[in-house]
Write a structure and sequence with these properties.
mainly alpha; Helix Hairpins; minor pseudopilin epsh fold; 2 domains; about 50% helix
Length: about 200
């Protein structure tokens, strides 16, 4: 299937007061995400994956033993990652639904500990990548991190929340302060109602 760049679910300047500027979204969505779409479509054209779903392409082209993933995987996976990322944020819905709060407290001991562990995963991801809150195959909530474009689909995990820790996601607004960016993401940018809907 052809990849398509989605419209943002909010205006480019809608997250500015919460710490993600219009300039960041113009670069991140309009340029970086679009490049994954354009490059992915070029690589998919005429390949065995051309008519497959995004999820089938990701799981079918991921190589757990490879030092570097192939171009189809990298672009399609990053397209999927960013589709999730835009939906996981919003200018509203920053109050955490009670069922999600209860699940996080049960899994991590407290909301503060969940945030601490999530930030630590993102900071501990050397180089580019993502940190995630997932429901694992044993139905337990866990925090993970992945390099580059690798995502929870590769491990049969359900994605609840993901934070992009590639530098293009935060350098305009936070420079080299990745921990501050991730905590700001948790405190001011996440659409917790969306996260709860993924439980």
């Amino acid at each position: 299937m052809a990849l398509e760049l989605p419209n943002l679910p909010y205006a480019h300047d809608a997250l500015a007061e919460a710490g993600m500027s219009k300039e960041t979204l113009e670069f991140h969505h309009d340029l970086h995400h679009k490049a994954y779409v354009d490059n992915g479509n070029k690589l998919l054209a005429g390949s065995e994956w051309e008519s497959k779903s995004i999820e089938e392409i990701i799981t079918g082209t991921y190589d757990a033993n490879a030092k570097a993933q192939n171009g189809i995987f990298n672009n399609v996976s990053q397209h999927w990652n960013h589709n999730q990322f835009w939906e996981m944020m919003g200018p509203n819905n920053h109050n955490m639904p009670s069922e999600l709060e209860a699940a996080l407290v049960e899994s991590f001991g407290s909301i503060d500990k969940f945030k601490e562990d999530f930030v630590a995963a993102g900071v501990g991801q050397f180089g580019s990548g993502w940190c995630w809150l997932v429901k694992d195959t044993d139905d337990q909530l866990k925090i993970t991190k992945t390099e580059n474009g690798v995502n929870p689909l590769c491990f049969n995990q359900k994605t609840l929340l993901g934070c992009d820790v590639w530098e293009h996601s935060y350098y305009i607004d936070f420079r080299n302060k990745r921990p501050v960016y991730i905590m700001n993401f948790l405190d001011k940018l996440v659409n917790w109602e969306y996260v709860a809907s993924q439980l």
